[in-house]
Amino acid sequence: MKAVVFHAIGDIRLEGVPEPKLQKPTDAIVRLTASAICGTDLHMIRGTLPGMRAGTILGHEGVGIVEETGADVRNVHRGDRVVIPSTIACGSCFYCEHGEYSQCDTANPNGAMAGTAFFGGPASSGPFQGLQAEFARVPLAGAGLVKLPDEVNDDQAILLSDIFPTAYFGIDLASVQPGDSVAVFGCGPVGQFAIASAKLKGAGTIIAIDCLPDRLETAEGQGAEIVNFNKENPVDAIRRLTSGKGARVAIDAVGVDATQAKEGWLASWIPTAEKSRHAKELREVAPHTNPQGKNWRPGDAPSQAIEWAVEGLAKCGTLSVIGVYPDSARFFPIGMAMNKNLKVVMGNCPHRKYIPTLVGLVQNGTIDPTQVLKEEVEPLVSALEAYKAFDLRKPGWIKVKLEPALV
Description:
Elements: E1 2-8, E2 11-16, E3 28-35, H1 39-46, E4 56-57, E5 62-69, E6 81-84, H2 94-97, E7 135-138, H3 141-144, E8 146-147, H4 154-157, H5 163-173, E9 182-185, H6 189-200, E10 206-210, H7 213-221, E11 225-228, H8 234-241, E12 247-252, H9 264-269, H10 272-285, H11 304-312, E13 313-321, H12 334-339, E14 343-346, H13 351-363, E15 376-377, H14 383-391, E16 397-398
Parallel strand pairs: 9-10, 9-12, 10-11, 12-13, 13-14, 15-16
Antiparallel strand pairs: 1-2, 1-4, 3-5, 3-7, 5-6, 6-8
């Protein structure tokens, strides 16, 4: 079968690999009908999420048809159409029973203290072969796979595998209440769904911060008040839009690949000492990089989004971090956060907790996730070209047909 395979930082290939087989009675084999590229995949290729093992199939977002099940998979069957949660969980350990699926004690073969198990990730996450392939082995399938109703199509369902649940988790983690002011840092797919999720929770003022016009336009289309950090200081703008107080909640939907302002007065104002500090942070989180032309270049200011978020929050506000940071990231403005009495919440999304609820919201027409990300560019015939386009933050959807003859 064809799959997108990681070989080294800056080196991914579309190639033939063996089809997966059942290994345990709790496994299922799923034929993928839709997969997606996540910003987390880009972290791995850029070198800002280290520890990848050569030969790992990438991808942790998938929708498909069950082809085969192990003897102990009792609730899904051959022919069922399913969405695959990005994180893997057993469903019955202490953490799973309390909804903390991303901290499952059982799923990660590296042990209970190893952290989140997910598809297509570094060695510390399993590793498990990913979902950017024609077929995938899904471990602990009875606990993980969620059957899809006919009313939810593949374009909608693929957004329920990771992106929408992660954003919804960030808003839920922050306990957003009706009327709350919410600042969303980063208006990529997760940021857009954070805006949508804040609206579902009844948030009042929603402020979207980014520097890409198309992403800001999409955020504005959702009703957010937009701030382009290439044109104005985002912290000052947040305070002006909140009567001087700052936002009640801030969502970091950016993570380690944050960037500094590249144009306007803010870019020229950045002190040399701050640029040097960000460069030092980058060396710590990504000691090995392999840029090729404009592709696979890490963000130049790893702590930028989280710094602005802390600074832009109101006293006693809540910072919710759902952007990805590696273990090597050791920077955080703790003094400012402490002196403002901030509440800081963060983590890897327990996808299985939220997917059934979100499937229901799509099925009953409360929200259509494809309308959150409206633009479409279709089709590119190469999965690798789609990766490059996403890495360069090209606007819109990019679709790649699954037929092997085309990829």
